[in-house]
Design goal:
Jelly Rolls, about 775 residues, Collagenase (Catalytic Domain), 4 domains, alpha+beta, five-stranded mixed beta sheet, single chain
Length: about 775
């Protein structure tokens, strides 16, 4: 286990209104930040103005590199044959006069002293760009809408390609963008998608990106000029995703506050994996690395046209709302059999629509209807029974499954019109592993509308999805299951950023108290998470754990409220699977105050009176001396350790802490050991804990946050005195969302203020009892 102290690594920015920076992306990775000033707010609901941009001296913050895929090293992109490059004319969305408003301008750039090869490459550049635009349209349809790029185009709806010569000395991103600007590419309503006719060692591309999570049209990614460079070896869309990757950086993908964002990328996918925007130092492929390319494999970080209410993309910046994209009318690309949308895996859901669609020559009749069909291609991961349905669609559907490779030569596998009790459709068939099945959805009597297509392989566990969670009950109990064949559903978190392939349980707390939940006895490396909510895409994390102190199984200790339903997810580290053993024990806690006030320095009229008496009632503290609680005294780190250990039930530690300044006979010795082995603190240095140091509000927030496993807060606070780079940024956001504090004043958290014993009592009581 890695231990991170309360003064540890910087957290990603979680503030919508305080701009952190304009960042250049190397192959999509953060480099060359330009930090903006911050501005204050006059009240909790006021949005401070965004600061003016100013440079910083340490331009190496976040510098990373995106290696060119090995197969492209030293290669030169070859122009497409004329027969293919001419397809661009038919592919893009024709928008207005082709020049007005916000648009993406294609650019071919070459260096002085090199050959101007625009004549050889212009048609190919148009085709490469419009082919990824066609891919984008399919991804939009898969998330419940349509999106196309607003290209600058001519009267024939052909994307225009500007040719620009830059000085022979140009190579890196800074000198390239300076040269492009000097050549007149300075329109603030343009994103300049530039195909640079040179290579930069080790890189595929570079782009500008704003760290701004403002969900409105005023987002800097929506209002500022952008440059996206793709270097020569990585031009071809068929072999490289670079151009679309870099262009989406200029649209604001991926923000640091998103569930898997790392400031420009998502870490639920690896370099070379399925996701267009994902990779990072600690990234894991939570989507199918061998599957088709996708925009946002979890549909939760940067691309979802119809995100779940309450999810990150529904609340904060969603690049699908970029003014540089258009919402076309007519049918989605999968109207054509040849453009069917690829799906796979043991279980999943995808969206679509057959509005405006038609049929093709030779296309069969689907369960008696043939009017407005759309297509998917499902590749079976293994042999077994597969069920496919259209439950959740908005109209009377028909559904058919075929094998075959051309629309005029298909073999029917199964079809259905209506499945009781409604007018949606469902089929089941014995699939052969590796076989591709063609799925057609049409409307009965030519009906059209929004489609929801669901599929499930027999290998998928029955409680694979949150909606199908197995219900358990009681204050104590044990149950079992398996994650073999489990999948990650749309929007589902990558649990603690390490776990996926999950199964779910549902439990309603019979009383308020502390729940101890464990996967002890499971035969694989588990990740355990507790949530509230009814949709995986908007679930609120309450507690998480990867490894308990002595094994690869997991344990959480989380306060629960009577009558609230909690969802338990068990997943595997890096996708590992196996047999699950799940055990729980609830220790009830009385929240009403029944004891008398033993402290002369705690007036009965004090705002903290009940909180202090609750601590005494629970034997969390007996005060600082006879008849004294010392409510205004600051909390020390030794006292904080005792508060947290006592409120958690004084669990036994397995290992000693190893701090030279915590003696074995100190009253907080056992508490410190427990905090250390549960990753709640790593001290103030490698061998010191500093027990007599005072605890700041920032440290208090971090202690409480780590007590529940440093969960993803899913919330962006509006404190102007808590910055993106602060180690306590996410902790503060969680503290506010959990209702433990609202700050010290309008727009203020006061992170450097000391925590008093009165405040600590209130924090702990609210945490447990509300």
């Amino acid at each position: 286990m890695n231990r991170v102290g309360e003064g540890g690594a910087a957290a990603p920015r979680r503030n919508v209104w305080v701009l952190l920076g304009l960042v250049a992306i190397l192959g999509g990775l953060v480099a060359q930040p330009i930090i903006a000033g911050t501005a204050g707010a006059t009240g909790p609901g006021d949005n401070p103005a965004k600061g003016e941009v100013s440079p910083v001296t340490d331009s190496q913050d976040g510098l990373r590199s995106d290696p060119i895929p090995p197969e492209l090293v030293g290669n030169e992109a070859v122009p497409l044959p004329a027969s293919k490059s001419a397809l661009a004319l038919d592919d893009i969305a024709c928008v207005g006069n082709g020049t007005s408003g916000k648009r993406v301008q294609l650019v071919y750039a070459y260096r002085a002293g090199s050959s101007n090869r625009s004549a050889a490459y212009a048609a190919s550049i148009r085709s490469w760009a419009t082919r990824f635009d066609d891919f984008l349209a399919g991804e939009g349809a898969a998330t419940g809408g349509q999106r196309r790029i607003r290209f600058v185009h001519d009267g024939a709806c052909q994307p225009t390609v500007l040719t620009v010569q830059v000085p022979s000395t140009v190579k890196d991103f800074d000198t390239a963008t300076e040269a492009l600007a000097a050549a007149g590419l300075t329109n603030p309503n343009r994103k300049y998608l530039t195909y640079a006719d040179w290579n930069v060692s080790g890189l595929c591309g570079t782009a500008t990106y704003w760290g701004d999570e403002d969900p409105s049209a005023n987002n800097f990614n929506n209002t500022e000029i952008g440059y996206a460079l793709t270097y020569q070896s990585c031009w071809d869309w068929s072999s490289s995703r670079t151009a679309l990757h870099e262009l989406f950086h200029t649209f604001g993908a991926v923000q640091g506050g998103s569930p898997n964002g790392n400031g420009g990328h998502c870490d639920d996918g690896e370099l070379g994996g399925a996701d267009i925007m994902c990779y990072g130092d600690y990234a894991l492929d939570a989507c199918d690395a061998g599957g088709p390319r996708v925009m946002d494999c979890g549909r939760d970080d940067y691309f979802n046209v119809t995100p779940v209410s309450g999810s990150y993309l529904a609340q904060y910046w969603n690049p699908t709302n970029s003014a540089y994209l258009t919402v076309p009318t007519g049918c989605a690309p999968q109207d054509s059999f040849a453009s069917s949308y690829p799906i796979g895996g043991n279980r999943g859901t995808v969206k679509g629509s057959n509005a405006g669609c038609g049929v093709e020559t030779g296309e069969p009749t689907h369960a008696g209807s043939r009017a407005s069909s759309v297509w998917w291609t499902y590749t079976a991961p293994s042999s077994g029974l597969v069920t496919i349905d259209t439950f959740g669609s908005a109209f009377d559907t028909v559904l058919a499954v075929y094998t075959g490779n051309t629309v005029g030569a298909l073999t029917l596998v199964n079809s259905n019109d209506d499945t009781a009790p409604g007018s949606r459709s469902k089929v089941a068939f014995a699939a052969t592993g590796g076989q591709r099945y063609r799925i057609a959805v049409d409307g009965r009597n030519a009906n059209t509308g929004a489609i929801k297509l669901n599929w499930k392989h027999a290998a998928s566990p029955a409680n694979d999805n949150l909606a199908d969670a197995w219900v358990v009950a009681g204050a104590n109990g044990a149950t079992g299951g398996s994650t073999n064949g489990a999948t990650r559903e749309t929007g589902e978190p990558m649990h603690r950023h390490r776990g996926f392939a999950s199964v779910w349980w549902s439990w309603t707390a019979p009383s308020t108290g502390n729940l101890r939940l464990s996967t002890s006895g499971s035969n694989f490396d588990t990740v355990l998470s507790v949530y509230t909510g009814t949709d995986a895409g908007a679930a609120v994390a309450r507690a998480q754990n990867d490894d308990d102190p002595t094994s690869y199984t997991s344990e959480v200790l989380v306060p629960v409220k009577a009558g609230v339903t909690y969802r338990w997810a068990v997943s595997g580290y890096a996708g590992s699977t196996g047999a699950v053993s799940l055990n729980w024990n609830l220790q009830p806690v009385q929240c009403s105050i029944t004891n008398s006030n033993p402290f002369s320095d705690v007036p009965n009229s004090a705002w903290y009176r009940n909180s202090v008496l609750w601590l005494v009632q629970r034997a969390i503290t007996s005060g600082t001396g006879p008849g004294k609680y010392s409510p205004n005294a600051p909390v020390t780190r030794g006292q904080m350790a005792m508060f947290l250990w006592n409120v958690s039930g004084q669990p036994a530690a397995t290992y000693s802490h190893g701090f030279s300044d915590v003696s074995p006979d100190s009253y907080y010795n056992d508490a410190v050991s427990w905090l250390v082995e549960n990753d709640i603190t790593s001290g103030t240095s490698w061998d010191t804990f500093s027990p007599n140091n005072k605890v700041s509000r920032a440290q208090m927030a971090t202690f409480l946050w780590k007590l529940v496993g440093a969960v993803y807060p899913g919330f962006i606070h509006d404190f102007y005195d808590v910055y993106e780079g602060a180690y306590y940024n996410q902790a503060v956001a969680w503290l506010v969302r959990a209702g433990i504090t609202a700050g010290t004043g309008p727009g203020q958290f006061s992170p450097n203020q000391n925590v008093t014993r009165a405040q600590m009592a209130a924090f702990l009581k609210i945490r447990t009892c509300g």
